[in-house]
Amino acid sequence: MKNFYIFTGVAVVVTILAVLFVPGVDDYVERTFQVYLGRAAR
Prior knowledge:
Distance between the termini: 28 Å
Number of helices: 2
Shape: flat
Radius of gyration: 12 Å
């Protein structure tokens, strides 16, 4: 379980850094989250 939290934390940090420093990634991340949240809302 500890590894899950570490992996999740690392994934969040990598995503934040990618959005801040890589152009175009923010649109991809936004689309991905919208699809995921759209499925969860159904």
